Amino acid sequence: MKILILTIGSRGDVQPYVALGKGLKAAGHEVTLATCERFRGFVEEHGLTYGYISDDLMKIIDSPEGKALMEDTTNIFRTIAAMIKMARQTAPLKREAVENSWAIAEEAQPDLICFHPKAVLGPSIGEKLNIPYVLATPIPMIVPTAEFPCVGFPDLRLGGWSNRLGYRIVNALIKVSSNKDVRAWRESTGTPLRRNNIDYLQDSGGNPVPALHAISEYVLPRPSDWPKTAIMSGYWFLDASEGWTPPTDLVSFLSDGPPPLYIGFGSISGRDPKRLGDMVIDALRKSGHRGVLARGWGGLDADELPASVFMIDEAPHEWLFPQMAGVVHHGGAGSTAAGLRAGKPTMICPFFADQPFWGQTVHRLGAGPAPIMQKKLTTDSLANAFDQLIFNERMHQRAEMIGAALREEDGVARAVSFLETVAADFSK
């Protein structure tokens, strides 16, 4: 079976899909993974066929305006307002991403499409080629449930109707923001209009769209009111440490004292990465703990490093995290999963979007302190959180229990089986 995976976004929006693609390839399928150009090498080095999508939209996100959007938005309504301000810049780039998606689909001629919510043309391609399509996401924000609020919405504790309302708003926003581009694509390709709006929840015949969530039920139980076509497969981990050799000075640092704390914010560090880096180091000094500070793709930086702090560019989480006393990060779905699988207490300092949701989830599980939004971080609050990560024995026990369960789970294998079942059912 030929499978096309469409995903757009940062590394956290790509890495799980590379893991899924490798699992599909190992099961005997041909896989094309289409994503932003900056990840071409990453996709190809894992043996998958790369499909081109322009990197220009990500360049806007990396711009000072894009970083300000991420740093200054703490809920979905402010995020929407900020995105409206950038609409003129992003509009032609969104259209380009739609066109790129169709071009790679024409080339790959897939038998099934697996699409990230940001890859808005996924359902339309499936309809045009008359093949099954599956929503695949690491974030529970599309399929409605009464059991917890939609990502980005506050928990108003008003009951199930309030929780469901958030999902309705998100799906409506997807339609509003994408219909124009999808309609333009339909006109340019002579594709008949089967319905007025794109819909991630139902196909043109009114049947539920299969929804595959790269989430473990040990972390977030599957809602009982989801349709049978929506599952949580478990996380899609990409273990990239095979063939990777750690720097000798990092190995020496780790062996020269008690396990340190990991602090890193991936592709995000706000508009002032140096200020954030200096704050982290001051908090480590104040609390007396050792730390590994990951510069990451966001460029986290600091003026001077004490002997108790080691700076790295990046290292495979599956190698590094088990050697830590605890982990501190921004709360991306992938980083959260990696910290929990390592069995380490986790402190989340969110910027925006799904990050506060995962911070609250980890805290509710008892595996980490209450999250602190990036804009509210201080040296004192960080130092206090570091102490909790080191000294709270119950937190360590909860984290290790969850980690042990996650290490026994094979989310990729379950996802592969699910996709094969969808394809088989479609052909009946």
From TrEMBL:
It holds the Pfam family Glyco_transf_28. Gene3D superfamilies: Glycogen Phosphorylase B. GO terms for molecular function: hexosyltransferase activity; UDP-glycosyltransferase activity. InterPro entries: EryCIII-like_C, Glycosyltransferase_28, GlycoTrans_28_N, UDP_glucos_trans. CDD domains: GT1_Gtf-like. Residues 3-141 form the Glycosyltransferase family 28 N-terminal domain. One of its GO terms (biological process) is carbohydrate metabolic process. Residues 301-399 form the Erythromycin biosynthesis protein CIII-like C-terminal domain. It comes from the Bacteria. PANTHER family: STEROL 3-BETA-GLUCOSYLTRANSFERASE, STEROL 3-BETA-GLUCOSYLTRANSFERASE UGT80A2. This is Glycosyltransferase. It comes from Hoeflea prorocentri.
